[in-house]
Amino acid sequence: MCCESKRRFLLLYATQKGQAKAIAEEIWQQAGAHGFEADMHCISEMDKYNLETEKDPVVIVISTTGTGDPPDTARKFVKKIQDKALPPDHFAHLQYGLLGLGDSEYMFFCNGGRTVDRRLQELGAQHFYDTGLADDCVGLELVVDPWIDGLWLALKEALQLQKEKEDMNNAVNPVSSSLSTAPHAVHELKLSSEVQNLKLEDEGARDSDILSQKLDGINLVAPPRDTKPSLVHSVPPVSQSTLNIPALPPEYIEVEFQDSQGENPHLSSLISEGTTFEVPVTKAVQLTREDAIKTALLLELDIADTAFEYQPGDAFCVICPNNISEVEELLHLLGLSEKGNDFICVKIKQGTKKKGASCPQHIPERSTLKFILTWCLEIRAIPKKAFLRALVECTSDVGEKRRLQELCSRQGASDYTRFIRDSNVCLLDLLHAFPSCKPSLSLLIEHLPKLQARSYSVSSSNLYQPGRLCFVFNVVEFAAGPSRPVSRRGVCTGWLAELVAPLLHPSKNSLDTKGESSLIEKISIFPRPNNTFHLPADPSVPFIMVGPGTGISPFIGFLQHRQKLREKHTDWEFGETWLFFGCRHQDRDYLFKQLQCFLENGTLTHLKVCFSRDSSTTEVAPPKYVQDILRLCAKEVARVLLKERGYFYVCGDKKHMADDVSDAVVDILSMEMEADKLEAMKVLAMLRETKRYLQDVWS
C-alpha cells in the first residue's frame, strides 16, 4: 500500500453541535494511515463538491436535531435532494456509506441520517458499506469505533471494483452486488498505525503488531480485592490491560494576549440562528412550595416593543452565560486569574496538521478571556474521548496519565460511560481529580464546544397576554457524587433563578423613589418556532393534552388561546379538550391550580389530575401517574382518537413519562379496537405520521 498513491474518497459531515464534525475529522486523520485521502467538507459547502458528478466513494456523517430534523447545516442539502422532479436514477452512479448520530431518548432516532439515506436510495445511489446508527444515549463510540474500523476494507473493495469497472469498460457486475462481505469485516479488523496501542511493561506476551510504550513508575501490583473503581482509580482487568487509545488530535489554535483595551462583542453576534431580542423580565413567580422536591419558576418577559412573534406551542431560546464562580475557578486552575480581563486574539497555529483548520465560529475575533469562558465555551460539557486523549499530554503524574489513557481507551469504555458520561463530569471536575493536568488555553478552545442557548416552551398566548411571553422551568439540580465533589445548578436555570431572585423576594431597598423596581433584568432570546406542536387548525377538532410537572407549560398557552378564541368567535364550534396533569404532591407542586378557571368557563372540558407521592386512605388507591389516568379513561381516549379524529399532545420528560404514555395509548387502542398490540402500534405510528400524535419532550 505504501508504494501506491493515496486513493481519494469524499467525506461530508452535517453537524449541529460539533459531534459529527469531530467524527469526520477522526476519519480524515485515520485515512492517511490506510492509504486513503479524504476530501472533507461540511455538507453545506455545496460549491466545493458535486454529488451529481462524483465518481469516488462518498462517506457521510450526519447528526439529528430537534424532533428528528437534519442539522441546520444540512437543510439546504436535504431540500435539494428532496426535489420531486429528480429522476429515480439521479444518483445511480453514486456509492456511499452513511453514519448517523442520534439519541434513542427521542422518538425519531437518527432521523436526520435516515432521511438522507432513504432519499439517496430512492434516487438510485448504492451502499458500498452498511449504514451505521450511533446512539448518544448509550455512547456514540459503541457504534462509531467499529464502523470506522470496518470502513477501510469497504473503501478498499469499493475502489478496487471501481478500478476494475474502468479497466474492463463496465464488464463486471455493479458495485452494489459485490460488497456483501464488507460489513462483516467490522469485527475482524485490528486498529492500525493511526491508533496508538499503549502496553504497560509486561514479562508476558510480546506482539509485534502492537506499538509498545514504556510508562515508567507505574505500580502494577494488583489492588486489594475490595477496592472499587472510580474516576481516578481503576481495577483489573482495565488497570492491567494493553490500551488502544485514539490518535492524538493535532493542535491547531494559538492564543495571543493583547495589551489593547476595548469592548466585548454584543451577545447577538454570537448567534447565527437569526434575530435576537433583548427583553426585560417583568415578573417571576415560584409555582412550587419551599418544601417541594423541585423548584418551578414562571417568568414573564415584555416583548411589546419588539418584533418577536410566537404561537402557543412554539419554543424559544435563552442566551445564557456560564456560572461566574466556575469561570473564576477555571481561570485559577489554568493560572490565568490575572489575565481574565485581557483581550486575546485566536488564530490558526502555523504548520498545523489539521485538515482545513479554521478558528471556531463561536469565538469572537476580539474579546476578553473572561468573555470567551463566560459566553462562548460550554465549560460544563462532558469531555469527549479526543479531549481526554489531548489532556494526557498535559498531565505530569504518571498514575494520573495512565488513568486518563484508560478513560479514553477502548478497554476503558465502560469506565468512561460510568465515571464521566453518566456522572456528568466536566472539565473542572477533571482538573480537580487530576491536579497534575495543566492544559493550555488553546487546547480548551480547540476541544470545548460552543455554549448553546437553552430552549424553553412558551407558556402563554399573545391573544391572552398581548406583548407578553411566559415560560416555566424547573431549576435543575445536580447533586454531588463520587466523580463530582460539589453540587451544581443547571447552567441556564441556575442563572435565571439567581437573576430573578430580587423579583421573587423583593425588599424595600430594591425599590426606587417612584416605587418601580430598579432591579429589572434583561435577557437575550431568539425564536425557535415549532412547525407541528400547535393547536388543530380546525377548532371543532377535539384534542387531548398530557403534561405532568412543567410539561403542562405549553398547554397553558393552548388554553389561554382557546379561551380568547371562544370569547371572540361565539358562533364557532369548538371541540372538547382534555388535560391530564400529574405531580408529586397536591399541596406542594400543583403548578397551576387556576386550571379550575378554564374548567369553569368551558375552555377545558375535562381535567384529570393525579399525585404520585400523596398517601391515600381510600379503599381503592387513586392513580399515581398520568398514564394510569389515561387507562381509566380508555373509552374516551379511543373515541377522540379513532372516531373523532382528534389530536393527542404529550409534553414533558421523555425517559420517565412520554414512553409510558405511548405504551398506555397502545394498550388503550389494542383493548378498544379488540386488536393485538402490533395492530395498535401501527395505528399509533399512523397517528404520528399524520401529525395527530405530537410530542414536545426532553431527556
UniProtKB/TrEMBL annotation:
Domain of life: Eukaryota
Matching Gene3D superfamilies: 3.40.50.360, NADPH-cytochrome p450 Reductase, Chain A, domain 3, Nucleotide-binding domain of ferredoxin-NADP reductase (FNR) module, Translation factors
Signal peptide: none
Example of a GO biological process term: cobalamin metabolic process
GO MF annotations in UniProt: [methionine synthase] reductase (NADPH) activity; flavin adenine dinucleotide binding; FMN binding
Protein name: Methionine synthase reductase
A Pfam family that the UniProt record links to this protein: NAD_binding_1
Catalytic reaction list: 2 cob(II)alamin + A + 2 H2O + 2 H(+) = 2 aquacob(III)alamin + AH2
UniProt entry keywords in alphabetical sequence: Amino-acid biosynthesis, Cytoplasm, FAD, Flavoprotein, FMN, Methionine biosynthesis, NADP, Oxidoreductase, Phosphoprotein, S-adenosyl-L-methionine
Domain FAD-binding FR-type: 274-536
Subunit structure, interactors included: Forms a multiprotein complex with MMACHC, MMADHC and MTR.
EC class of the enzyme, as a word: oxidoreductase
Enzyme Commission code(s) on record: 1.16.1.8
